Amino acid sequence: MVMKASAFLAYVTSVILGFLGVLYLLASVYAPQRLITGSLLLGSAILIIALTVWKTSIPKKIIVQWSPSGELEVEELKCPYCGAPITELKPGMDIIKCKYCGKTIKVEEKPIW
Ligand SMILES: [Zn+2]
Fold it and tell me: Lower CB density within 10 Å: C or N end of the chain?
């Protein structure tokens, strides 16, 4: 995942805020009122990180719709020996083994014209 510039900026800002917050908290040893400033700075830094992580972790939805214009023709493939349906056919396969009678079938693509 590519990090967006806005997310990067948010992380940098929160790191700076968090660093200042820690500095204020450490300095509160000398002046207790710095404890409030430090907590606020650290708190907002954590809030920014949490919001950014939450925003960037939501995956984007991609909806692919397929709407064929005409009516679809479905043809069932059957084993020519026993008539069992052939289900394991994949594109590119031309020789398959029937699950039911064990005979090998060669699949040939017929031209549609
Ligand atoms: Zn068969």
Answer: C
Tens digit of pLDDT for each residue in 9-30? 888 888 888 888 888 888 888 8
Token output for 103:
């005979």
Distance separating alpha carbons of residues 9 and 35, to the nearest angstrom: 26
Q: Which residues of the chain have pLDDT under 50?
A: none
C-alpha 106 – ligand 1 centre gap (Å): 12
Torsion angles phi and psi, residue 48, rounded to 5? -65, -45
| Beta-carbon neighbours within 5 Å of ion ligand 1 | 79, 81-82, 84, 98, 100-101
pLDDT at 112: 66
84 and 44 both lie in a single domain: no
